[in-house]
Amino acid sequence: MSCIRVFLFLTLAVVSIVEINGLCGRNERFQKCGSSCPPSCANPDPGPCAQICKRGCFCRSGFMRNSKGQCTNTCP
After folding, report:
1. H-state helical runs in the chain
2. pTM as predicted
């Protein structure tokens, strides 16, 4: 039983470290509660959006996701 507790503790620790470090790409930052419809090069003004939190990597201010999934400040 104690082995299971240690395993669960270590698993949670690793997940927390990954989230803190973000492991996000260039020009991205990790957010615990980001937009479910962030602007992109294909849709720079997504308009009305449901207020649903989404965890993950989001483009930094002034950047939008392009068709390759990268955050860029120059859209075609």
Report:
1. 2-21
2. 0.67
